[in-house]
Amino acid sequence: MNRKTVFWFTFLVGPLVLLSYIRGVNAVPDASVYWGGVPSGMQTLIVPWMFVAAAGYLLMLYQFFSGWTEEDVASLNWPGKSPDGQGTNRLMLLYASFLVSSMLWIDATRWHIEGPSFFTAAIVIGILAIAGIASVGFGVLAWSSRGRLENANRVMIGSVMLSIQCTFWDAIYWTLMFPW
């Protein structure tokens, strides 16, 4: 797999995430139902983090597809491992996990709201966990490269920006506050 394949995947699937949110918001009479038990005061704190997360995502996107060469991306590896040329595959796994789970979250939540059950709750929580883990994974993937690839810290900073939203606010805080 090459970097261009990963780029086109993100280029095509990324907008589908946004479309799924538009569809999800329009599928219910009151979109505030998606906030669950999150108090309105906390909503005003969380919403700006959505934009911070988007900026972090774009920072990583830039570094992976414009800031580094094909060889640089292929050399990405997990901490404690030696570069093996499979970094592009790892990156594709992270993007697929993150984008597909992000695309499915709102529909799964609506499914749970319409027919609450342990099964639907587990699906929503699992989807959010996957997105949260993948958002952290981008930074973990860049961690071992910070000494040899220029601007690896951009990916790590972008991952932190994204992870605060996807891991902390969504997968942990929202999950704890939602009235299951």
Account of the protein in words:
With 180 residues, this protein is mostly helical. The protein has one domain. Helix content is 76%, strand content 0%. It contains 6 helices and no strands. Helix 2 (40-67) runs antiparallel to helix 6 (152-177) and helix 4 (87-114) packs antiparallel against helix 5. The longest helix is centred in the first third of the chain and has 28 residues, at 40-67. The model has no long low-confidence stretch (mean pLDDT 97).
Spell the H/E element sequence: HHHHHH
Major sheet: size, sense and barrel closure? none
Structurally, how many domains make up the residues?
Answer: 1
Work out the number of β strands. 0
How do the strands and helices of this protein lay out in sequence?
Blueprint: H1 3-26, H2 40-67, H3 70-74, H4 87-114, H5 118-143, H6 152-177
Descriptors for this entry?
elongated
Provide a compact summary of the structure.
Helix content is 76%, strand content 0%. It has 180 residues and is an all-alpha fold.
